[in-house]
Amino acid sequence: MDRSETPSHRPKQKEILYTISCTPRDTMATSLYRATVFTLYQLSIVLGIALLPVALAANRAGISLPIDKLLIRLDAAYEQAASQ
């Protein structure tokens, strides 16, 4: 009897060596969506910093820019994508 046939070296019948879990959470489309939302979120932060002088000048001139609605929507999408 060689070593592989001894009772201590035989694999158990119900032993699971590998499991593959394929959930909608792990799809490539979801990963692409999360990466896109993250990129848009970061880009909005950079644009906000870069356009701050323009927003301040517009505020002094009495013009209100509706950027807050865009940021709220991007923040909600980012939070939803991050929780998936």
Account of the 3D structure:
This protein is an all-alpha fold and 84 residues long. The protein has one domain. The chain is elongated and about 75 Å long. The mean pLDDT is 76.
Helices and strands, in order, run as: HHH
Secondary-structure-derived class? mainly alpha
Number of helices: 3
N-end to C-end Cα span: 52 Å
Strands, count: 0
Q: What value does the average pLDDT take?
A: 76
Oligomer: single chain
Shape: elongated
Q: Extract low-pLDDT stretches.
A: none
Share in helix:
55-70%
What's the alpha carbon Rg, rounded to whole Å?
A: 27 Å
Which percent range describes the beta-strand content?
Answer: under 5%
Sheet bearing the most strands, described?
Answer: none
Number of domains: 1
Short description:
This protein has three helices and no strands. The two termini are 52 Å apart.
Keywords:
84 residues, mainly alpha, 3 helices, 0% strand
Q: Strands, helices and their partners?
A:
Blueprint: H1 28-50, H2 52-60, H3 67-83
Helix pairs in contact: 1-3
